[in-house]
Q: What sequence folds into this?
């Protein structure tokens, strides 16, 4: 068994693969705790709260563990709200920040008693006309800031579907005044994998300006976007520097606002990415005239990030860690171009060897599918050094259970 650190050894991961089979996602609880404590320490000089953006990973056991740390929950669908409640989160500690949903889904969230973040003029007006100031809401603004590691995960620029443009403030004010809406929070999220601390500072300065239009605020929410390293030397968000600069700016603003505010964040990837390991088995070594392929028993149906975002995941051979290093291209078993990594230097890979993908906790299993009628993998959680199965591997029955035979 591993020590109660936040890193799992190659030998331990091999034992997990042998016990639970592959492909398998493995999550290390202590790493989540380490990441959460980093945030708490970085923002210890201001009144800050954190809400886990559960779209990164929603296994209910992970949600329960994060709840036990004292973290809140950020959700983007009514189903995520319901999962959060089942995991034990207090409705007052759940934020609901959907986009492009109809009023009925917003009303469903209201009926469950969670905090609601509205991100478009149409729903804002409909909600105000129906409920007025009887249920407080937050408003998500689009600051028109381009940020993030990939255009697909940049959410605060002028062409983004997310949030209400800051240039529509007069329209927002008219709706709030005419319907007597009670606005208790302002929110923005500019994107994921933000390396530049100044992006957050620009964002909070915009929110400070917008806050002057709302007398009843209780919080300012900067979303998240904290970048974690995916390989050695990879830049990441300087959380300590961010905590110092943002805390200074926020505390200074608080001196002049009408009431003390809280500073909110919604970390997802930052909390769970590095806790996750994805272990696969080598099916075949295939040599062509130009390339040596390692074909594994998984594909982008299980880990889509490399194909969808051109994301890098460090890959290692945990079965032969001292073997001679060679160059391989690691591919999956899906009937599409399905490449995990081109020209990777790995210790010699043999058929049957286990490989591990690191930083697989965020948007790994969560974005998986049954494409090619392949089965979704199992999930295992390591807590206090003990592995526990937290999701069974799919079976053929899982593929068929919602289909209806209409002979």
A:
């Amino acid at each position: 068994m591993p020590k109660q650190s936040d890193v799992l050894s190659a030998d331990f991961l091999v034992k997990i693969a042998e016990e639970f089979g592959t492909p398998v996602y493995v999550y290390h609880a202590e790493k989540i705790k380490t990441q959460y404590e980093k945030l708490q320490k970085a923002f210890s000089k201001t009144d800050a709260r954190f809400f886990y953006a559960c779209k990164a990973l929603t296994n209910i056991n992970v949600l329960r563990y994060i709840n036990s740390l004292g973290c809140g929950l950020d959700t983007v669908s009514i189903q995520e709200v319901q999962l959060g409640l089942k995991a034990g989160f207090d409705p007052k500690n759940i934020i609901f920040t959907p986009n492009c949903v109809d009023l009925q889904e917003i009303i469903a969230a209201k009926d469950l008693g969670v905090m609601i973040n509205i991100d478009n003029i149409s729903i804002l007006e409909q909600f105000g006309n129906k409920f007025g100031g009887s249920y407080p809401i937050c408003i998500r603004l689009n600051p028109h800031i381009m940020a993030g590691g990939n255009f697909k995960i940049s959410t605060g620029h002028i062409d983004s579907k997310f949030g209400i443009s800051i240039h529509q403030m007069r329209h927002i004010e008219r709706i709030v005044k005419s319907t007597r809406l009670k606005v208790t929070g302002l929110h923005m999220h500019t994107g994921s994998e933000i390396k530049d601390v100044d992006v957050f500072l620009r964002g909070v300065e915009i929110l400070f300006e917008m806050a002057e239009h709302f007398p009843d605020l209780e919080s300012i929410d900067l979303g998240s976007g904290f970048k974690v390293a995916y390989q050695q030397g990879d830049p990441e968000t300087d959380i300590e520097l961010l905590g110092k600069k943002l805390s200074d700016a926020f505390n200074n603003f608080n001196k002049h606002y009408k009431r003390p505010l809280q500073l909110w964040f919604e970390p997802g990837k930052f909390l769970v990415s590095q806790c996750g390991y994805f272990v696969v088995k080598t099916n075949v070594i295939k040599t062509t005239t130009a390339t040596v392929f390692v074909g594994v028993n998984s594909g982008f149906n299980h880990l889509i990030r490399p194909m969808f975002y051109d994301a890098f995941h460090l890959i290692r051979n945990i079965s032969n860690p001292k073997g001679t290093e060679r160059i391989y291209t690691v591919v999956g078993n899906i009937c599409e171009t399905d490449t995990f990594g081109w020209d990777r230097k790995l210790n010699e890979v043999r058929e049957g060897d286990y490989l591990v993908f690191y930083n697989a906790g965020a948007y790994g299993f969560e974005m998986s599918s049954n494409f090619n009628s392949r089965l979704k993998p199992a999930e295992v959680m390591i807590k206090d050094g003990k592995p526990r199965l937290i999701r069974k591997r799919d079976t053929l029955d899982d593929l068929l259970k919602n289909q209806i035979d209409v002979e």
